[in-house]
Amino acid sequence: MLKEYSFEKTAIQTFADNVPLALRTEDMQVFYGSNHAMHDASLSFPKNQITALIGASGSGKSTYLRSLNRMNDGIATVTGKIWYHDVDINEPDVNIYEIRRHIGMVFQRPNPFSKSIRENIIYALRAEGIKDKQVLAERVERSLRGAALWDEVKDNLDKSALALSGGQQQRLCIARSIAMEPDVLLLDEPCSALDPISTVKVEETLAELRKKYTIIIVTHNMQQAARISSQCAFFHLGHVMEYTPTATMFSNPQIPVTQDYISGSFG
Ligand SMILES: Nc1ncnc2c1ncn2[C@@H]1O[C@H](COP(=O)(O)OP(=O)(O)OP(=O)(O)O)[C@@H](O)[C@H]1O
Question: What terms describe the molecular function in GO for this protein (predicted)?
């Protein structure tokens, strides 16, 4: 039986004024009808770092992540503020397509379009009005290199994306996201459908991408969170309970619920 923990006792780090932030939420609450799925989530995400969101199934990690680029529009009611630079992107009048250009998302299951590798990358760019062949070719190469896929596919860009392995497809989805040159990349358990070798490739890719992008990743895999993230947020039953440097979370968790989760008592 799951112990009851106090939601009053949390350990949430904030950052000094001189730490540049890519994104910040203030008192975010999410409701699916009458289900209050996320309570008072106030977190800051430093630029060019990887932040991992961890917690048991149903704790609200995806709900929180999806709210960051308004993917919950029409599905849930999200209140509170989501600061991207000086703009509260949770305001109804902001352009959500524009937001998603800056805050891209990669999903759990690789979901390439049923088109060629090249087309997967340039589809959205064309929709943005980029027509110049040279520019498109450069973006294809840059994005595939960024996602550490270029060497494996450069001679087969017209091959169907669906013929790639699962791990390659996921890196193609990352390439598709970074082709839009976002600032922030949200990843919802991007490795859960991948084998260990593909997982290592994706993790290496993320470590490289961090130099250019801010990354927020949901993962069930605590070893993965420990390997790749600078800070970690632990979610429990729709509450952010602890947000600390990753080394602290795994070696010296601050509150009982995190200690129990990390030590495998539940989840
Ligand atoms: N589309 C939806 N409609 C209604 N309720 C939802 C929806 N998505 C999530 N929920 C509810 O919100 C709560 C949090 O779910 P969420 O998927 O965010 O958790 P999670 O921590 O990401 O779980 P998992 O690790 O299993 O993906 C759960 O009670 C879930 O049933």
Answer: ATP binding; ATP hydrolysis activity; phosphate transmembrane transporter activity
